[in-house]
Design goal:
Its cofactor is Mg(2+). Belongs to the dethiobiotin synthetase family. GO terms for molecular function: dethiobiotin synthase activity. It is found in: Cytoplasm. By secondary structure, the protein is of the alpha/beta class. The protein has one domain: Rossmann fold. The chain has 8 helices and 10 strands. It has helices spanning 6-14, 34-47, 70-78, 97-102, 110-114, 145-152, 166-179, 201-208, and strands at residues 22-27, 51-55, 58-60, 89-91, 125-130, 138-140, 143-144, 156-161, 184-190, 213-216. The chain has a 6-stranded parallel β-sheet, sandwiched between helices. A two-stranded parallel sheet has the order 3-4. Bound molecules: adenosine-5'-diphosphate and magnesium ion (MG). Magnesium ion binds at residues 34-35, 70, 130. Residues 27, 30-36, 70, 190-192, 216, 218-219, 222 line the site of adenosine-5'-diphosphate (ADP).
Length: 224
């Protein structure tokens, strides 16, 4: 704890996340940094006095060593024990959740996933929900991440990888979020690879979006 990215704290303010009771974290794709960024969001929210309730309603590619899972990372960041409430449904295959569930003879219903999140929580508590994959990725046999986000009705935080092509991915996803009558709180551009000379997705996106965009730095401590 204590490692706050100052721009992230400011982004939390301008995005309205600090006035919300929770967020639904989605991505432009799988592997873009929803969990990585989510961990620091949770840290920052805690520094700002929130008690964070983490949820990963379903996780596929679940490892036997569950310490490395998304659910474990979110739980650890929130300072809660990883129990079945954090991630009630998990499957071994690294496939979209309904496919991974098929392999274990189970059926995932969007309403059941939604029911894993509390409907009421106290002032000062903050619900952090990470989806699976991107906004239009299947998350259950009967629905997409977008459907789960709609049932929960939380503001949506969109994480994108800061790379060539991301403007298209962000604007398409932003349009889909609005189409679902959800509020896009803002966009986090996550730097996972060295940026191309002359590329500036942050300022380009700011021209096309009303919502605040922040760049999240590459974290070399991960490899050190
Ligand atoms: N800013 C970053 N700096 C360094 N590594 C990162 C960064 N963001 C993500 N990663 C790494 O990239 C991989 C995918 O990120 P992850 O948060 O798991 O994506 P998602 O939750 O969207 O599937 C992970 O191994 C993570 O540690
Ligand atoms: Mg993740």
């Amino acid at each position: 704890m204590g490692m706050i990215v100052p721009s992230l704290a400011q982004w939390l303010e301008t995005s309205g996340v600090l006035d919300a009771s929770g967020i639904f974290v989605t991505g432009t794709d799988t592997g873009v940094g929803k969990t990585h960024v989510g961990v620091l969001l949770i840290h920052t929210l805690r520094v700002l006095g929130r008690t964070v309730i983490p949820r990963k309603p379903v996780e596929s590619g679940w490892l036997e060593d569950s310490g490395a899972t998304d659910a474990a990372q979110l739980a650890q960041a929130a300072g809660v024990t990883l129990d079945s409430r954090v991630c009630p449904y998990h499957f071994r295959a690294a496939l979209a959740p309904p496919r991974a569930a098929d392999q274990e003879g189970q059926t995932l219903r969007i309403r059941e996933l939604a029911a894993t999140c509390p409907v009421r929580w106290e002032k000062g508590q903050f619900l952090h929900v990470e989806g699976a994959g991107g906004f239009y990725s299947p998350i259950a046999h009967d629905g997409l991440n977008a459907d789960l986000a709609q049932i929960l009705g939380l503001p949506v935080v969109l994480v994108a990888e800061d790379k060539l092509g991301c403007i298209n991915q962000v604007l398409l996803t932003a349009e889909a979020i609005r189409q679902r009558q959800l509020r896009l709180a803002g966009v986090i551009l996550n730097v996972r690879t060295p940026p191309l000379e002359g590329m500036d997705n942050l300022s380009d996106l700011q021209k096309y979006l009303q919502e605040p965009v922040v760049r999240f730095p590459f974290d070399s401590s991960h490899f050190g």
